[in-house]
Amino acid sequence: MTLDPYVPAGSAARGPYLMDISPQRAGWEHSSLRVLGLAPATEHTFATGDSEWIFLPLSGACTVTCDDAEFDIQGRKDVFSGISDFAYVCRVTLR
Is the pLDDT assigned to residue 93 strictly greater than 60? Predict the structure, then answer.
């Protein structure tokens, strides 16, 4: 199956995500891409399942919480303002 790499603006939105590209839609095996716009002082929670995640703010700062660990990400003004810090969350084994 040949997939078209072009995704028209707005066509990849799903639920709260401005963009949600699954491995099936992209035509690869493992990676997903989600873009979430959050207003200041709001939060978003989701289950990581058996996946690893990288949280990379395109603009602004955020706090990432996983179990009892908390990571303050300083972020940046916008994508043209330099490199941002990020958080990596490994697979979490649920008991």
Answer: no
The angle at the Cα of 83, spanning 24 to 41, to the nearest 5 degrees, equals 75
d(CA 19, CA 12): 5
Distance CA 86, CA 62 (A): 10
**Which residues make Cβ contacts (< 8 Å) with residue 27, sequence separation at least 6?**
1, 3
d(CA 83, CA 80): 8
Q: How many residues does the chain have?
A: 95
Instruction: Note the pTM of the prediction, 2 decimals.
Output: 0.78
